[in-house]
Design a protein that fits this description.
mainly alpha; 3 domains; about 75% helix; 16 helices; Serine Threonine Protein Phosphatase 5, Tetratricopeptide repeat; elongated; about 0% strand
């Protein structure tokens, strides 16, 4: 993204009037170079200097947007919001700036404002997968499952194998107890990303809700094979073993969970069930 923004600026600059001070162009190029090196404080200072050198430059929307991203990374959200606002005052239909501000609003736990920005993006680009994904996520948090389903569906039409889109749809189906559809979503993910241990854990949780304990056990076996250092996975498999009346195996997994970093005290109730 850094290089893309830099090259976009240079291309636009080259089309601009030759009367523009050379120092403005040089300062902006230095700022992008500093940003590419993650020298964020220096980059911020240079972008601000460029804005002073060319306060009316037609392409300052790009500079303000990039400045907002840097301030966001420097953990100064209020400054970032101000920079994004300046950028959008110049270029109100900038999809990238709207997406950046939407993400910042989510970080600031302001989903209502984020929802507005993502909606504006989708008015401009109805197939924008990032906006569809995060608007669906916000709708899920609000328990507006109908709206979430619509956005997840549209996302998966655009990109049928979208990881987070499929995962979001699986969780939505699970929440609405549409277990067959949720299982299909998880299985498609597992087939596509067979080395992702977290997907087997997620499917095992669904299978427990479906009372398919033997299938859940198989998925947890695979999850632990892929990630044998996960204390949480050993605890999950131990609870499955307990449900299946396999206390010896459950006790063994609890000990492995402790060895992997889990607190023995937090597992006392489960240990008691193994006796």
């Amino acid at each position: 993204m850094e290089k893309k923004m830099k090259y976009l600026f240079i291309a636009l600059f080259c089309m601009s009037t030759p009367l523009l001070a050379q120092t403005y162009k040089e300062t902006v190029e230095k700022a992008f170079a500093m940003a590419e090196k993650d020298s964020l404080v220096q980059a911020e200072a240079l972008f601000k200097e460029a804005l002073k050198l060319g306060p009316s430059h037609a392409y300052n929307a790009i500079i303000f947007s990039r400045l907002g991203t840097i301030q966001q990374r420097l953990n100064r959200p209020d400054d970032a919001l101000q920079s994004y606002a300046y950028s959008l005052n110049i270029a109100p239909k900038s999809v990238q700036t709207l997406l950046s501000r939407g993400a910042l609003y989510l970080e600031m736990e302001n989903p209502d404002r984020a929802y507005v920005d993502y909606s504006e993006v989708l008015d401009l680009e109805p197939k924008n997968t990032e906006a569809l994904l995060f608007r669906a996520y916000i709708s899920m948090k609000k328990r507006d499952y109908k709206a979430a389903r619509l956005d997840y569906t549209n996302l998966l039409i655009v990109e049928p194998g979208h990881y987070n889109g499929l995962l979001g749809m699986a969780l939505l189906n699970q929440k609405e107890k549409r277990y067959k559809e949720a299982l299909e979503n998880y299985t498609k993910l597992v087939d596509t990303y067979p080395e992702d241990a977290s997907l087997y854990v997620a499917r095992a949780e669904l299978e427990q809700e479906m009372d398919s304990w033997e299938l859940a056990l198989l998925d947890m076996d695979e999850a632990i094979r892929l990630n044998p250092s996960s204390a949480e996975s050993y605890v999950t498999r131990a609870t499955i073993y307990l449900h299946l009346k396999k206390k010896t195996q459950a006790h063994s997994d609890l000990e492995k969970a402790v060895a992997a970093g889990a607190s023995r005290g937090s597992l006392q109730d489960l240990f008691k069930q193994c006796k």
